[in-house]
What does this fold into?
Amino acid sequence: MKKYTFKKEERLCSKRSIDDLFHNGSSFVVYPFRIGCLIKPANPEQNFPAQVITSVPKKRFKKAVDRNALKRLMRECYRLEKPQLYSFLQEHSVNLFLAIQYVSNDKLPYETLKNKLKLVIAKLENEISKSDLGKSN
It folds into this structure.
C-alpha cells in the first residue's frame, strides 16, 4: 500500500541544505513552477529519499492567505505524486533536494497544478536517469 503522507522529515528545513540546493543545484521551469533540484548519492542515515521546500513569492501574492493556500495546494499535489518519485529514487540509489517555486501571477486551479506536477516528476526522473548518479545502477 502506498503511503500518501508528508512528514516533517520530508520537508527541507536545514539552512545549510537549502543554501546547498540553490548554489549547487540545477533548475528548470515547468510553468507555473520553477524547480530547483540537487541530486546526491543515497545516504543511509536519511529516512526519506527526497526533501522538499515550497515557496510562493510575496511580490506576486500580497496576501498571506493566498500564498499559504497556494503552498498548501502545491504540497498536496506533491504528496499524492510522491510514491512514484520515491520508488524511482530508491531504484537509482539517490537522494533529492527539491525546491518548488510558484512563478505564475494567477492562482491556478488544483487540477492544473496536479497535472503540471506530474510533468515535473517525469522531467526529474529523466534528469536523474541522465545524471552520473542515476546511471550507476
User: Anything to note?
Assistant: DSSP finds four helices and four strands in the chain. The radius of gyration is 15 Å. The first helix runs from residue 15 to 24. The longest strand covers residues 33-41.
